[in-house]
Write a structure and sequence with these properties.
By secondary structure, the protein is of the alpha+beta class. It contains four helices and four strands, in the order αβββααβα.
């Protein structure tokens, strides 16, 4: 296996993401919940890979979440709230089990807060 030590941080994340995506996929009953983290915002999607469509999504750009982001400045708190939002939206559609796709990010900080918020909302991984 080739060494990826010479690659920059973004390229190493892309390789991790590819490695993860080879192993997991989502269905209509157990969707893949994938996360994208920018420096400012978070985006979460529940994807049915078989049909190739997004079942539900949540983002920190939504007005009710965005105002909290400006006032609190605590991105981890907003991430936990987004996890609860995506779990509520999936429960409305009758989905209680998911596969969590961290998209190559370390399971730490905002990514962990999203997962914990989703578990608090009642989703099973």
């Amino acid at each position: 296996m080739p060494s990826h030590a010479h690659l920059d941080r973004k390229q190493r994340r892309q390789w991790r993401k590819i490695r993860i995506r080879k192993k997991i996929s989502g269905t209509a009953e157990v969707p893949r919940v994938c996360v994208f983290r920018s420096s400012k915002y978070l985006y979460i999607q529940a994807v049915d890979d078989v049909a190739g469509r997004v079942i539900a999504s949540a983002t920190s750009l939504e007005p009710e979440v965005r105002k909290d982001l400006k006032t609190s400045g605590k991105h981890v708190d907003v991430a936990a709230r987004l996890g609860e939002m995506i779990s509520a939206r999936l429960k409305e559609k009758g989905i209680t089990r998911i596969t969590f796709d961290r998209s190559g990010y370390l399971y730490h900080g905002r990514i962990k807060a999203i997962a914990d918020g989703a578990r608090k909302g009642g989703l099973q991984f």
